[in-house]
Amino acid sequence: MRVLLVDDEVELVSAMAERLGYRGLDADWTDNGEDAIRMAAETEYAVAVLDMKMPRMGGLELREKLAFHHPGMRFIFLSGHGSESDFKAGCAAGCSYLIKPIQLEDLVDMIREVVGEELS
Fold first, then answer.
1. DSSP category for residue 83
2. Could you check whether the bond before residue 55 is cis, i.e. omega within 30 degrees of 0?
3. What is the pLDDT of residues 11-42, one digit of tens each?
4. Which residue range or ranges hold the Response regulatory domain (predicted)?
5. Which burial class, exposed, middle or buried, applies to 62 when counting CB atoms under 10 A from its CB (0-12, 13-18, 19+)?
6. What residues contact residue 64 under an 8 Å CB cut-off, 6+ apart?
7. CA 91, 99, 3, 38: dihedral to nearest 10 degrees?
8. DSSP 3-state helix, strand, coil percentages of the chain (rounded to 5)?
9. What does the DSSP 8-state code read for residue 31?
10. Lowest mean pLDDT: which of 18-22, 68-72, 88-92, 94-98?
11. I need a surface site. Which of 40, 58, 69, 114 has the fewest CB within 10 A?
């Protein structure tokens, strides 16, 4: 399964991609929405993990654009600036949501859950 990680915190997102790889998930990453859209046009991702707050294009707007072109893609939102309104907006879009700092195992479990894989 391929996972697309999008977060403007480069050190965080690159480390997350590397650590997901150690757990058997192929993860690509970028720090902006424009690159994420280009990457998704070139590669089929099962799940996109999107930061809610990013410069130029936030996670909700990016989700709309990705979902339009990739209706089977599943989404998980991450936020370090969690608020109840962000949570409700994320959930209203039918997505899962984690508040930073996250435990990588929680993210792995959520990725497997949104694609319908059994958790081990």
1. -
2. no
3. 999 999 999 999 999 999 999 999 999 999 99
4. 2-115
5. buried
6. none
7. 80
8. 45, 20, 35
9. S
10. 88-92
11. 69
